[in-house]
């Protein structure tokens, strides 16, 4: 029995008669009630008299780890899987690339990025040799930019420490920057056939529902419980197919809101379905409420020059370019405060330019909302070198600014509002 499980129903051999009869009756009907009651008594008898059953049950039922599970998924997978490019390769580089891109990203959104990266950088050596700004530019719009920076670093690490050859085991893969347990398991099983189970959101959902596990999947300690179960389910003969199958099953059959239980091959074994708990499982405690931040971008311009800077560490969008920034507690920035900020940056307001309207844009991230105001300010003179040194700003032409790696917020502002 698993720690969070309500009933140890899956740990005993299923009753071949009453389970199938129960499934043929409607929930709540006398037939369903009779069969389920009979089944419970029957299952209890397995516990006390299992030595008697050993002689008569088929061999597959006697294996200790839910023998129906892997065969059902492996039978389902080839008939339902989506045809995706990274499923046609065992190249660890291509698999790693796809896994990094698809973390916290839907397949539909990630697919064009994968195709772009694998075409632009067909080998790990080519990705490692690319400038970081160029890599970030290709990543633009995918969010979670630390993934792109880690990916670039890891490519260099593979070239530097492993002569450009990806390590071939789960434990070695874990030594690479940005490669966690999920990615290491995916590469080790897909590329090298290692028998190590993957755990992603889809897998958590399938296991929680089928095995009736009510542990909170948002709690890190729960991972061990699910990993231990998944490791007992993965067959030695087909680890890659099993991992692909369970993830795909969670993505298109056992979906979060509308799982297709009616035509599910695991229905008769599924704890959540049998107990009317499909919408309750998995249990995931709510994430922290997101906070709102107020960014006032000061877009300093002079003639054909615009000033941008690279964002530093310890905040969102590290390594991407934006404008001089003042963050406040409200959406307002007075004219006086704006003028003071321009002076502090070493600039002098042009006297012959009309004031530009403020542009307001909103950008929603996973844990914060950014309410951005763009204040376009025309300068009397270019910023002096000392001011550039202090502020970190650098001069660009508008077409150069278009080519810099930027957050979607900044890219949207430039695309929509620059003449
Ligand atoms: S019966 Fe429904 S909840 Fe259970 S595994 Fe199948 S699709 Fe998921």
Automatic annotation (TrEMBL):
InterPro entries: A/G_AdeGlyc_MutY (IPR005760), DNA_glycosylase (IPR011257), HhH-GPD_domain (IPR003265), HhH_base_excis_C (IPR023170), MIG/MutY (IPR044298), MutY_C (IPR029119), NUDIX_hydrolase-like_dom_sf (IPR015797). Keywords: 4Fe-4S, DNA damage, DNA repair, Glycosidase, Hydrolase, Iron, Iron-sulfur, Metal-binding. Signal peptide: none annotated. Binds 1 [4Fe-4S] cluster. GO terms for molecular function: 4 iron, 4 sulfur cluster binding; 8-oxo-7,8-dihydroguanine DNA N-glycosylase activity; adenine/guanine mispair binding; metal ion binding; oxidized purine DNA binding; purine-specific mismatch base pair DNA N-glycosylase activity. It is an enzyme of class 3 (hydrolase). CDD domains: ENDO3c, NUDIX_DNA_Glycosylase_C-MutY. Residues 101-252 form the HhH-GPD domain. It holds the Pfam family NUDIX_4. It catalyses: Hydrolyzes free adenine bases from 7,8-dihydro-8-oxoguanine:adenine mismatched double-stranded DNA, leaving an apurinic site. Its cofactor is [4Fe-4S] cluster. Its EC number is 3.2.2.31. Belongs to the Nth/MutY family. Adenine glycosylase active on G-A mispairs. MutY also corrects error-prone DNA synthesis past GO lesions which are due to the oxidatively damaged form of guanine: 7,8-dihydro-8-oxoguanine (8-oxo-dGTP). This is Adenine DNA glycosylase.
């Amino acid at each position: 029995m698993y720690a969070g499980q309500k009933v140890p129903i899956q740990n005993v051999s299923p009753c071949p008669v009453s389970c199938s009869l129960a499934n043929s009756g409607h929930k709540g009907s006398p037939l369903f009630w009779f069969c389920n009651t009979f089944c419970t008594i029957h299952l209890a008898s397995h516990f006390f008299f299992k030595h008697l059953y050993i002689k008569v049950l088929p061999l597959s039922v006697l294996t200790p780890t839910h023998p129906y599970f892997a065969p059902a998924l492996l039978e389902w997978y080839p008939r339902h899987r989506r045809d995706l490019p990274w499923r046609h390769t065992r190249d660890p580089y291509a698999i790693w690339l796809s896994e990094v891109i698809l973390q916290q990203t839907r397949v539909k959104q990630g697919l064009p990025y994968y195709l772009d990266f694998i075409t632009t950088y067909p080998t790990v050596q080519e990705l490692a040799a690319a400038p970081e700004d160029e890599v970030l530019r290709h990543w633009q719009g995918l969010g979670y930019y630390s993934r792109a920076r880690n990916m670039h670093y890891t490519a260099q690490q593979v070239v530097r420490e492993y002569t450009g050859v990806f390590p071939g085991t789960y434990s070695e893969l874990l030594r690479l920057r940005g490669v966690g347990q999920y990615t290491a398991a995916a590469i080790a099983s897909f590329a090298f056939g290692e028998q190590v189970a993957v755990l992603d959101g889809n897998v958590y959902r399938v296991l929680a529902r089928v095995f009736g596990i009510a542990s909170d999947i948002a709690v890190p300690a729960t991972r061990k419980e699910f990993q231990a179960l998944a490791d007992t389910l993965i067959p030695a003969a087909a680890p890659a197919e099993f991992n692909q199958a369970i993830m795909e099953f969670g993505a298109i059959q056992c979906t979060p809101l509308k799982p297709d239980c009616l035509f599910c091959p695991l229905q008769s074994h599924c704890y959540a379905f049998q107990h009317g708990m499909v919408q309750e499982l998995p249990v995931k405690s709510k994430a922290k409420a997101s906070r709102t931040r107020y960014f006032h971008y000061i877009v300093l311009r002079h003639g054909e020059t615009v000033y941008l800077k690279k964002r530093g560490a310890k905040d969102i969008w590290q390594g991407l370019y934006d404008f001089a920034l003042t963050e406040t507690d409200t959406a307002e920035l007075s004219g006086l405060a704006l003028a003071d900020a321009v002076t502090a940056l070493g600039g002098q307001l042009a006297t012959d330019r009309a004031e530009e309207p403020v542009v307001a844009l909103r950008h929603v991230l996973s844990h914060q909302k950014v309410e951005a105001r763009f204040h376009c300010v025309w300068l009397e003179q270019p910023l002096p070198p000392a001011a550039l040194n202090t502020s970190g700003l650098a001069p660009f032409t508008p077409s150069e600014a278009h080519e810099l790696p930027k957050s979607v917020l900044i890219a949207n502002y430039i695309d929509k509002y620059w003449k």
